[in-house]
Amino acid sequence: MNTFPVQTTHKNTRSFGFKYFLGSFCRSVFRARMCDSRSMGRSWAALLLAAIPCSAADLPQAIDALMQASPVARASVGIQVVDLKTGNALYSRNADRLYLPASNMKLFTSALALERLGPEYRLTTRLVRATSGDLILVGGGDPSLSGRTYPYQKNASANNPLQAIEELADQAVAAGVQRVDGDIVGDDQLYPWAPYPPSWTVDDMIGEDGAPISGLTLNDNAVTLAIRPAARAGDLAAVSFEPAIEYYAVDNRVLTVAGEKEARIRLSRLPGSRQLLVWGTIPLAGATARETVAVDDPALFAACALYDALARRGVAIRGRPVARHRAISEDPWPVEGDVIATRMSPSMVEMLQVIEKVSQNLHTELMLREVARVTRGAGTRESGLQELAAWLASLGIKAEEWRAEDGSGLSRNDQASPRAVTRLLTHMAASKNAAAWVSLLPVGGEDGTLANRLCCVSDASAAKQVRAKTGTLSRAVALSGYADSRTRGRLAFSILVNNFSAPPAEVRAWVDKIALSLVE
């Protein structure tokens, strides 16, 4: 019996013949064998329910059957499926209720940036030799100063994370810089210094998922601790940084131990502190363990990296690395002097592709602020959300259908309805940037956050007919995007699941089955 609270709308329903049912049932049995071992324990009754065919007319019954056999009893589930040719809803379940969308919030922010700024928009980082004697690295909001490959390539090998800094240092030396009489300044005044949106947690802020937001961003505003076992059990492990910038002080309490197979390492950092406490154990014969931690002041981190790069090139520096921020209430300090080096970002569509493919929080927040700076003259989170609200209203998405405190979906106070998400997806599918937009999304079983998903199917090509954005937080799983149906053409869909008690992997596998049912 269905235990879900629902508001369900079905269209174009009909019965189906025994032969079609039998064929669908056989396909379901085959798929069950291809899935993980948990699905093997399902009853024949559950398999019979899952066997309902997924033709366009029978889509509501197919999804209802999956709901009956789902692992999320008593959870909150919202689903909306829209036929892009007709604009009609083929399936709706709790489509007007609000859900924690997790990283599905990135769909809203990326769509806004693509529409407001355009696919070829670029950002520029400048190096200025100031009249004061300082050498100022002026942030342009560019998230790409890292070792990432652009355009996005799945399985791309990592490049030098400081390559952009190295190139700027080379340009400075080529411009005649042999000494710096002042400081090396990291200037992130493009956006006011407000690094953390509301409801981001302390745990978020330690790791790369909650890296601070700054107009001057380097290596995703994070460093990695490489922890290597000592030569003898009982000795402390060796700790080094990647990239090799001495930004944090480390209190290392990681012991090398014999007889264990896995490293058990924890780390902590007090807010505002530049000291890391690292503790735990690492196996004597184990491999190097790596822990990524966010830097607390990205502009200062970038200044330290530039200082090091110039010093290695023989530049004499009188001052030290410093950061320059501004409060929301302040106007930017003037940057006066000669521009001696520049770096231009990849195109907007390439930057957004990284955001959607790998679900990058920091980059999304930067795009929200850049939209706000260009359209409203203030590169703040608040102005960005105001611009988003105005744009969504122009699409017919009502204020009561969503709310946001950030652009990335890391905030636990973000909310969206499945109907709002599919309305956004419907608009973008018809926009002048439709081709660029669809190219941003992960492809089922192929790349990004869907590389290892939607694979539980006998026909491997079916997974690739789904392009969608994932979303995961504690007790929240989301998947929204497009499915190319064999009978109806392209469909827009949104599946939002909150407050479940089942293991997240099991919930994701169930959500994937719903998405795959849309391909039939």
User: For the largest beta sheet, what order do the strands appear in spatially?
Assistant: 1-3-2-21-20-19
In total, how many domains does the architecture comprise?
A: 2
CATH topology of the largest domain: Beta-lactamase
Share of β-strand residues:
15-25%
What is the makeup of the main sheet?
Answer: 6 strands, antiparallel
Weakly predicted, low-confidence segments: 1-56
Q: Any idea what the CATH architecture of the largest domain is?
A: 3-Layer(aba) Sandwich
- Distance linking N and C termini: 26 Å
CATH superfamily of the largest domain: DD-peptidase/beta-lactamase superfamily
Overall form:
globular
Structural class label: alpha+beta
Name of the level-1 CATH class of the largest domain:
Alpha Beta
Query: What integer value in Å does the Rg equal?
Result: 25 Å
Q: What is the mean pLDDT?
A: 89
| Beta strand count | 21
Written account of the structure:
The protein is α+β, with helices and mostly antiparallel strands. It folds into two domains: 8-116 and 350-517, Beta-lactamase; 122-346, no CATH class. 30% of the residues lie in helices and 23% in strands. It has helices at 18-34, 44-50, 59-68, 105-117, 163-174, 202-206, 298-312, 348-358, 361-376, 381-394, 418-429, 434-440, 460-463, 504-517; strands at 8-10, 76-83, 89-93, 124-130, 135-138, 179-180, 184-187, 222-228, 238-242, 249-257, 264-268, 275-283, 289-294, 316-317, 321-324, 337-344, 402-403, 415-416, 466-473, 476-485, 489-498. The strands form six sheets. The protein has a six-stranded antiparallel beta sheet, sandwiched between helices. A hairpin with a 5-residue loop joins strand 2 (76-83) and strand 3. The two termini are 26 Å apart. Mean pLDDT is 89; it is low at 1-56.
